[in-house]
Amino acid sequence: MQIKTLAKTSKQLEIEITNENETLLNPLVQVLLQYKEVDFASIAADHPLGPTRRLYIRLKGGVKTEPLVLLKKAVKQLSDEAIDLRKGFEEEVKKAEKKK
């Protein structure tokens, strides 16, 4: 995965992500949209089969935080959720194996 900042202001962020697709980026957008500070978050691709996606984040007016701070928070939240999912899955597999 390669990440490149295309545009950055105090209220907007546009980054280009190469060799990653909607499987990872859609959940990231969904987490961002849950934050009250976020006005708009979306991903775009020049072509659905192409290797590059762009992530856009725009914050509401009057918000004191920056988009990059919220992006880091969203990535951390998603990572924590994935870890919890893995742990829960591993516990259920162990329970199922004991029943055999």
What does this molecule look like?
The chain is an alpha+beta fold and 100 residues long. It has helices spanning 22-34, 67-99; strands at 2-8, 12-18, 38-44, 52-59. The protein has one domain: RNA polymerase, RBP11-like subunit (Gyrase A, domain 2). The protein is built from two helices and four strands, in the order E-E-H-E-E-H. It is globular, with a radius of gyration of 17 Å.
**What's the shape?**
globular
Mean pLDDT: 93
Structure classification? alpha+beta
Q: In percent, how much strand structure appears in the residues?
A: 25-35%
What is the gyration radius calculated from CA atoms? 17 Å
CATH class: Alpha Beta
Count of the domains:
1
Keywords for this structure?
100 residues; alpha+beta; Gyrase A, domain 2; four-stranded antiparallel beta sheet; 2 helices; 4 strands; 46% helix; 29% strand; globular
Write a brief structural summary.
The chain has 100 residues and is an alpha+beta fold.
Topology:
Elements: E1 2-8, E2 12-18, H1 22-34, E3 38-44, E4 52-59, H2 67-99
Antiparallel strand pairs: 1-2, 2-4, 3-4
